[in-house]
Amino acid sequence: MLDNIKLGQYLHGDSWYYRLDPRAKLVMTTFFVVIIFMANNWITYLGATIFTLLIIFTSGVSLKFFYRSIRPIFFLIMLTFVLNLILYRTGEHFPPLTINISKVLVTGYGIFIILLIFLRIFKVIDKYISGKIFKISLLIIIIINVVIAYLFKNEQFIWSFNWIIYKGAVINGGFVILRLVLIISFSSLLTFTTKPTELTLAIEHVLAPLKIIKFPVSELALMISIALRFIPTLLEETQKILKAQTSRGADLTEGNLKEKVIQIISLLIPMFIISFKRAEDLANAMEARGYVPGKKRTSYRILKWRLRDTLYVTSFVLLTVYFIYFRYLWK
Amino acid sequence: MKIKTIALNGIVAAVYVIVTALIQPIAFSQIQFRVPEIFNHLVVFNKKYFFGIVIGVFVANLMFSNLLPFDLIFGVIHTVLSLAITIIISKFVHNKITLMLINTVIFSFNMFIIAYELQLALEFPFWETWLFTASGELIVMVIGIPVMYIINKRINIASH
After folding, report:
1. Using one digit for the tens of pLDDT, what is the confidence trace for A181-225?
2. Which residues span the domain enclosing A141?
3. Most CB atoms closer than 10 Å: which of A111, A190, A279, B11?
4. Does the CB of A87 have a partner CB in chain B at under 8 Å?
5. Could you tell me if residue A75 is inside a domain?
6. Are residues A237 and A116 in the same domain?
7. Do A278 and B11 touch (CB under 8 A)?
8. Angle between helices A63-70 and A167-193 (to 10 degrees)
9. The whole model's pTM is what?
10. A277: helix, coil or strand?
11. What domain count does chain A have?
């Protein structure tokens, strides 16, 4: 259960993007997420796409990793597009799509759904293969649709309506998806090429001005570092607890709600006890090594701002100018 | 801030991330059943857990989120704001269960932040998304109330 969990997304490699100052990467990625919302026509989106592709292709990260980070949101993307088609109702539209629902069609679907339920009840298909079944079902549904449409052309319709798809909806939906893909790719690139520890250091530097209002920035960064350091350790402990509780008959995946809640409690209590003990030990160790909260400290890693970072930032300034020009001034 | 608090919060954040990892598949969709959200009740027992929860949300989103930058920014804002409100209310309300109920309502209500995030990122309809996300949060945190209550009976959360 816990064996295939990938902690962090860092990929080992070396390229100009890896060597950039993490502060530059962090701030500019955030900046990109903000300015991409300025894009509103095809020329601005084209610029943003070319800019992102240039960086991605030269970053030395294989494209398949970007595909992997976009794949989980594929469903969300599709949902977004469909919602757009339904909710967007202005401007020009395509010829209306007539959707007819006949008695035969309803009967066909009815038989099909009942068949699926029966197969499920009699355990012919279990939940592990139902994903495949779902895909096959979709295919069958389409085939049923086509066959029925041809065989029963003259049948009486129970319900018939015109679905109007607006041109703006398709364009807008496309832009939303493109924007999302660009943002996800850009932020994935940051986590692919930057170690969490470097990122924490960058966050500490970026938030440094907050020290003026007595916000504990260094302590915050230290807590993030502790969390990152202890995730693998505590994960191992969790595996032991899970195995111990499983051997006593607990099963986190089965049972009704009440049983599940009890099982979660049986997992959480030992986890809390172990974590509290670890925290105690860690605090003692930190104290013994002379850690004083709030005191100015030196860092093992020192960030250095180089020419390439300035150039990187400049490229974003140029992109912003491009956006402003083609959004507001270009007709 | 005490050394003990720093160490404790770092580790609580790690636990948050691990629990997120355990139930990863159902954590980041429109109807969110994020089981680690029950950790939000920790702040009811002692306000020092504030940073642990916030960092937990941050690191969990950094590692597992699909909508990375959005979840990072809005997820943290949502948690910080809700916890801050609960901390203020905890000065006036001392019954832990009542406070956990109030905490649940605050977190669920504040899901409008997440709904706004999804509207911004995916152009989801705001009101429906708020309803969906808030109900997911409400269910998880209501279940979290007895869970946290039982855990607190066994190990005194506030005293650590």
Report:
1. 999 999 999 999 998 889 999 999 999 999 899 888 999 999 999
2. 98-162
3. B11
4. yes
5. yes
6. no
7. yes
8. 120
9. 0.84
10. helix
11. 2
